[in-house]
Design a protein that fits this description.
This protein has a two-stranded antiparallel sheet. The mean pLDDT is 91. It has two domains: 58 residues, Helicase, Ruva Protein, domain 3 (Orthogonal Bundle); 44 residues, Ribosomal protein S13/S18, C-terminal domain (30s ribosomal protein s13, domain 2, Irregular), CATH 4.10.910. A hairpin with a 2-residue loop joins strand 1 and strand 2. With 124 residues, it is mainly alpha-helical. It is elongated and about 85 Å long.
């Protein structure tokens, strides 16, 4: 049972894929952590020894992950909203922040479509 940063790693996955369940760790960083901790990244999480898990914990402590990273990201977003920059305004309005088109897409950010009633055509 490998528990790192209060996250239970999936037992049947390979170590570097299991590490990606921690917020802030992607595949490339997970491989780097495994190499620095001298742990084979292709072993299953359930086969890790306690020494290997401790080595991974020490290596992960060097990076901002989970709560610290989430707090930093939220602080950055709030800061942008306060200073009124374009990204902050897009966050306030619930629109895509990084320049995506919004005419027909962006349903994830904008939510469900709003129904517009049809005008009746003038009869002859």
């Amino acid at each position: 049972m490998a528990r790192i940063k209060n996250i239970e790693l999936p037992k049947d996955k390979v170590t570097f894929i299991g590490l990606t369940s921690i917020y802030g760790i992607g595949q490339s960083l997970a491989k780097k952590i495994c190499n620095d901790a001298k742990v084979d990244c292709m072993i299953r999480v359930k086969d890790l020894t306690d020494e290997q898990v401790n080595a991974l914990r020490k290596e992960i402590d060097k990076y901002p992950v989970e709560g610290d990273l989430r707090r930093d990201v939220q602080t950055n977003i709030k800061n942008k909203m306060e200073i009124g920059c374009n990204q902050g305004l897009r966050h306030k309005r619930g629109l895509p922040v990084r320049g995506q088109n919004t005419r027909s897409n962006a349903r994830t950010r904008k939510g469900r479509g709003k129904v517009v009633a049809n005008k009746k055509k003038a009869g002859k």
